[in-house]
Amino acid sequence: MLANDLKCSGDAFVIVADNVTLDLGGRTITGPGMGPQTWPQPQLDSVGVRTGGHTGVTIRNGTISEFSTGIYFVDMAKSRIEDVTSQRSRYGFYIHASNESVIRRSTVVGNIYGLHLQDANDSLVEGNNLVRQTYNSPGGYGIYLYRSTGNRIVENTIENNVNWGIWFSDARNNRVFRNNVAGNSPQVSDNNPDANKWYDAEIRKATGGRTTRALTEIGTSSVTRRMRSRDPVPRSTRTHSPSATAGRRSEARPSITTGRRSRDRRARCVSS
């Protein structure tokens, strides 16, 4: 558990093992700033917590502020982000080429890009506040899914983002239900408007086809119809950072390292 707030000149934490829990202890870790735009590629100049190629990692209970990316998962399986606030970064959370992630009870606020899922499948996004992302085209979205399938987006508040509340590009077979979506422009965008489900199939079956309890509130009314988008679909490739993809650790290597940055080995974190 983290004992003090940290101010970091590069990455704060790099997790290099399976089944690690990083408890931030309610503390705040602050980075050097968001860095230049790289969208839709991840921005990895500085990352609050990064990890790649592992299973069963949990990050919880703290605030991450002013990094290029708050939390970056790549090639992860069955890993979690819980009770984390990510703010004033370029990306709040970037979930990349990962399966069965859980993002729960977290707040993504005041970033350029909110929650970004790219080639991310079978995740659960539940009970989060994805609010007030700012604008740097094509930023300002609450949640974005690109080439991602089988995800459930449930009971989130997605409000007052400068651009999209929910944005799908080439995303299929995702389920979106019991969310509050308001004050975004547009509320929803989907370039495959019949590819995703806006209700919970189990509730629909239990209620004999009545989906009221399962609907997402968009604006002032419950709707299940999507909006066709003409927005450009990004074309990008998986990006691996040296520290995130260095492979499984040896027995002598710590499972969490602090203060690392690939371009600046002097980068460090200090207590504040």
Mean pLDDT: 85
What is the CA-based Rg, rounded? Answer: 18 Å
Oligomer: single chain
Shape: globular
Q: Name the beta content range.
A: 35-45%
Which residues sit in consecutive blocks of at least 5 with pLDDT less than 50?
A: 221-252
Helix percentage range: under 10%
H/E series, N to C? EEEEEEEEEEEEEEEEEEEEEHEEEE
Largest sheet report = 16 strands, mixed
Report the structural category.
mainly beta
What is the total tally of β strands?
A: 25
C-alpha termini separation: 16 Å
Number of helices, where a helix is a run of at least 4 consecutive DSSP H or I residues: 1
Structure description:
The chain is mainly beta and 272 residues long. It is built from 1 helix and 25 strands. The protein has one helix spanning 201-206; strands spanning 6-8, 13-15, 21-23, 28-30, 47-52, 58-65, 69-74, 80-87, 91-96, 102-104, 107-109, 113-118, 124-126, 129-131, 143-146, 152-154, 157-159, 166-169, 175-177, 180-182, 188-190, 216-218, 221-223, 256-258, 269-271. It has a 16-stranded mixed sheet that branches. Strands 21-18-15-12-9-7-5-2-24 form a 9-stranded mixed sheet, with no helix packed on it.
